[in-house]
Amino acid sequence: MIYTDTRDKSVKTDLKTAVMSGMNEKTGGLYIPVEFPKLPSSFINKTPEPSFRDIAFEMAKPYVAGEIPDKDLQAIIQDAYPFTAPVVPVDKVSYVLELFHGPTCAFKDFGARFMARVMSYFNRNESTPLHILVATSGDTGSAVGSAFHNVPGLDVTILYPEGKISPLQEKQLSTFDGNVRALKVKGTFDDCQKLVKTAFTDNELRARLRLSSANSINISRLLPQSFYYMYSSLAVRARSWGDNKIENPAIICVVPSGNFGNLTSGLIAREMGAPITGFVAATNSNRTIPDWIATGDYNARPSVETYANAMDVGAPSNYERIQAMYSLEQVRSLFASYWLDNDGIIDSIKNCYEKTGYTIDPHGAVGWKAWSDIRKGGMEALKNGTKNDFTKPGLTPNLPSWADKVINKEAVGIILETAHPAKFGATVQKATGTSPIIPDRLEKVMKLEDKAIPMENNYEQFKAWLLANL
């Protein structure tokens, strides 16, 4: 497979280069495949539907062709995924895709574990370590740290905004040792991300250190996240008739998004043949992408702090990939967009719990509210000419091509639950009056010693620290 650059389509490179460099240091662009091969219909229509690991293998094959033999790819997938992604029906037309069954209880385990093993494979003959720099607004850092911990030849530095993530999330980041360490930056996630991106374009630094990224700017984080879109859409298609008597339902994936890597992974799955009709781009008060879809103007802005902190991103990196894949009109045809403020997040957690008995986290709650509003009159109101105010929480004024499927009750929704609710225990308890049960693997982390290193929001200081310590 050939990979190109979102900023310079003349660039042509291989997977190893794209993965090991993270992003194009010359242009600052992100790597993207030149094509998205469709899986054979015989595989997609198999009865019963394929397992998660079988889907992962078939989807990954074309992207690693010529660089990772099938036998080694199988081993990578077997090692990366001792867990799966259950699809849980919460009512007749709504399904929650639980992506928190990995070691750090967040969806980013799916991308990070695959990426770590691919990087280790490509790095096996190198004499110097590959230094991974990663910015996190919550769950990315812990997933990357866990996936890369004690992996030979790889070294990880995680940057997170001090005081702007949940206490449990911070514990997951601040307690690593060995080849993984965390820097707590006095700033926002966008500040952390800017420090990382600046390092990647610093020729002096790159001449002295081999650098790569583990954010969703790295294509090897993005591609494996497409696996669970294919898996869940096939599972829902297979069971839908028994749940709701809708023949050949339009499947709408409702995706809580911050950096919009997760949604971009869904686009990749759809391009490869997943039976997904459309998407809902759902976010919090950091509404850069909904505003772009509503107005046509992309305006990055400083992030604001919310209860759904993993989505506290004002300048989402994967806007570049979405724009490289589709025109604005195609995006508007494929996406509905939606945003919710903190009060709405609390109300949605409460509503989901009271209506279905399901305890959802603050990020999934944005998705739950979006889907509830869309199917309970929101889409019909748009079709009838209501001009929603995009500056206020709710559905933005964009009518996707699949609107009639929802209005005619021919659609089902898959809501991505991106993290275990226990990671946001105080917020969930505020909404429901009940504290979610903490999984053992999270409870153990709370007893570990904090080892995070303080860091000012200053690139020269950050660079000096890297050169002195790596």
Walk me through this protein's architecture.
It is a single chain. The chain is an alpha/beta fold and 470 residues long. It has 20 helices and 14 strands. Strands 3-4-13-9-10-11-12 form a seven-stranded mixed β-sheet, with helices on both faces. The chain starts with a strand and ends with a helix.
- Sheet with most strands: strand arrangement: 3-4-13-9-10-11-12
Give the radius of gyration: 21 Å
The beta-strand count equals 14
β-strand percent reads: 5-15%
Give the structural class: alpha/beta
The largest sheet, given as strand count, sense and whether it forms a barrel, is:
7 strands, mixed
C-alpha end-to-end distance: 33 Å
Name the poorly predicted regions: none
Q: Tell me roughly what share of residues is in helical segments.
A: 40-55%
The average pLDDT score comes to 94
Write a brief structural summary:
The chain is of the alpha/beta class and 470 residues long. The protein has helices at residues 15-21, 41-44, 52-64, 70-80, 108-122, 139-148, 167-174, 189-200, 203-208, 219-244, 261-271, 288-295, 319-325, 328-334, 342-356, 362-383, 403-407, 425-432, 440-445, 459-469, and strands at 3-5, 31-33, 87-91, 94-98, 130-135, 154-161, 180-185, 211-213, 250-256, 278-283, 335-339, 394-395, 411-417, 453-455. The longest helix is centred in the middle third of the chain and has 26 residues, at 219-244.
